[in-house]
């Protein structure tokens, strides 16, 4: 290519890099705002986004996840956008390094999730169940989220009704939450647990498996964008040496 064509190609890629990372920056700001909103008013989030959102809120503190992801996207977007605009090799290398670290971390998490699914389930149960025992019936937002999910998904607790044994709720009311009985009348004795609903964790896993194809496609798309972003940032980095 002639010097003019090379310069035109460089300028085009630079502009695309700026626009792409500006979109990332704005997306990060949006996620950060949503994360703060979920932290302040989780019930409205459940009302708007429905059962799946309440299911996710049970096992993951969505507000903190969104705040962290939003903050990371803000940093990435700033490094990529400002680094390309100012043609800063330092910022472009920082952008490349951050995206590479995230890419490697995503692969590691995917491998662990596939290979150690049972371990992940055990750890999740160990983390969520104590919180359920302590906060259900005490924290209004937490209680509302669980009630919404247990009612709409027709489930009880994370693993099963025994998650409420020795809980603050059971000690106070001497029975399990009403959603645990589905359409049946409340029962106060654990020996009659045959009429209680199954745990929510299996239901959530089933929802995830049902949408596994979509989730896999999204993950593959994100990975492709990350690879493309690293390739473009490295191209700009190397071309700056020739200018």
From TrEMBL:
<comment type="function">
    <text>Structural component of specialized membrane microdomains known as tetraspanin-enriched microdomains (TERMs), which act as platforms for receptor clustering and signaling. Participates thereby in diverse biological functions such as cell signal transduction, adhesion, migration and protein trafficking. Regulates neuronal differentiation in response to NGF by facilitating NGF-mediated activation of NTRK1/TRKA receptor tyrosine kinase and subsequent downstream signaling pathways. Plays a role in the inhibition of TNFalpha-induced apoptosis.</text>
</comment>
<feature type="transmembrane region" description="Helical">
    <location>
        <begin position="58"/>
        <end position="79"/>
    </location>
</feature>
<keyword id="KW-0812">Transmembrane</keyword>
<dbReference type="InterPro" id="IPR000301">
    <property type="entry name" value="Tetraspanin_animals"/>
</dbReference>
<dbReference type="InterPro" id="IPR018503">
    <property type="entry name" value="Tetraspanin_CS"/>
</dbReference>
<dbReference type="InterPro" id="IPR008952">
    <property type="entry name" value="Tetraspanin_EC2_sf"/>
</dbReference>
<dbReference type="GO" id="GO:0005765">
    <property type="term" value="C:lysosomal membrane"/>
</dbReference>
<keyword id="KW-0325">Glycoprotein</keyword>
<keyword id="KW-0472">Membrane</keyword>
<comment type="similarity">
    <text>Belongs to the tetraspanin (TM4SF) family.</text>
</comment>
<feature type="transmembrane region" description="Helical">
    <location>
        <begin position="91"/>
        <end position="116"/>
    </location>
</feature>
<dbReference type="GO" id="GO:0005886">
    <property type="term" value="C:plasma membrane"/>
</dbReference>
<protein>
    <recommendedName>
        <fullName>Tetraspanin</fullName>
    </recommendedName>
</protein>
<feature type="transmembrane region" description="Helical">
    <location>
        <begin position="214"/>
        <end position="238"/>
    </location>
</feature>
<feature type="transmembrane region" description="Helical">
    <location>
        <begin position="12"/>
        <end position="38"/>
    </location>
</feature>
<keyword id="KW-0458">Lysosome</keyword>
<comment type="subunit">
    <text>Interacts with SLC19A2. Interacts with NTRK1/TRKA.</text>
</comment>
<dbReference type="InterPro" id="IPR018499">
    <property type="entry name" value="Tetraspanin/Peripherin"/>
</dbReference>
<keyword id="KW-1133">Transmembrane helix</keyword>
<dbReference type="Pfam" id="PF00335">
    <property type="entry name" value="Tetraspanin"/>
</dbReference>
């Amino acid at each position: 290519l002639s010097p003019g064509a090379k310069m035109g190609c460089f300028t085009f890629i630079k502009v695309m890099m700026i626009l792409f990372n500006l979109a990332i920056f704005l997306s990060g700001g949006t996620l950060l705002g949503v994360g703060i909103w979920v932290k302040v008013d989780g019930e409205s989030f459940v009302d708007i986004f429905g059962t799946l959102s309440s299911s996710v809120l049970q096992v993951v503190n969505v507000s903190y996840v969104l705040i962290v992801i939003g903050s990371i996207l803000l940093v990435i977007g700033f490094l990529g956008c400002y680094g390309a605009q100012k043609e800063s090799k330092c910022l472009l290398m920082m952008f490349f390094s951050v995206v590479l670290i995230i890419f490697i971390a995503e692969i590691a998490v995917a491998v662990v999730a596939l290979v150690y699914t049972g371990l992940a389930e055990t750890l999740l149960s160990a983390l969520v169940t104590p919180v359920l025992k302590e906060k259900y019936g005490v924290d209004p937002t937490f209680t509302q989220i669980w009630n919404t999910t247990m009612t709409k998904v027709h489930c009880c607790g994370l693993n099963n009704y025994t998650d409420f044994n020795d809980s603050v709720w059971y000690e106070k009311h001497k029975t399990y939450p009403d959603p645990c009985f589905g359409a049946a009348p409340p029962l106060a004795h654990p020996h009659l647990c045959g009429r209680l609903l199954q745990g929510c964790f299996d239901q959530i896993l089933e929802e995830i498996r049902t949408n596994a194809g979509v989730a896999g496609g999204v993950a593959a798309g994100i990975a492709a964008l990350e690879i493309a972003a690293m390739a473009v940032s490295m191209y700009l980095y190397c071309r700056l040496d020739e200018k």
